[in-house]
Structures are given as structure tokens and as C-alpha cells.
Design goal:
This protein is of the alpha+beta class and 64 residues long. It contains two helices and three strands. The longest helix has 18 residues.
């Protein structure tokens, strides 16, 4: 198994075998083409959290 790091903007999750790689079209572990970009999923979650905090002033005042 390769222990090198993968930058988040290149990381994909294979939806068939749950392997993470930097593959472009096909999972190197199982040859599936069901790949999902992790940066899209993880960055969208943080954007929603930021949006929720700015739209609810009570949460901001409690956090401060």
C-alpha cells in the first residue's frame, strides 16, 4: 500500500470499494469508475457551516 499523501483537491473516493486515491477516471484498487471528489464534499460542508453562522447572529454572539 502506498503511504504518500494526496492533496485534497486531487483526492477521490471510490464509491464501490471505499478506497481514496488521486485517480482521474478509474479506481486503481477495483477499476470502478464511480469516483467522488472529496474536496467538493468536504469544502461544501464548511461553506454551509460558515453560511449558517453568518445568517444567525445569536450563534455568533454566543461563540464570541
Amino acid at each position: 500500500m502506498n503511504n504518500s499523501t494526496i492533496p485534497l483537491d486531487h483526492a477521490v473516493l471510490c464509491l464501490d470499494c471505499d478506497s481514496v486515491s488521486d485517480a482521474k477516471r478509474e479506481c486503481p484498487a477495483c477499476a470502478s469508475r464511480a469516483l467522488m471528489s472529496l474536496s467538493v464534499v468536504l469544502n461544501s460542508t464548511s461553506e454551509f457551516a460558515d453560511l449558517e453562522q453568518t445568517s444567525n447572529p445569536r450563534k455568533l454572539s454566543k461563540a464570541a
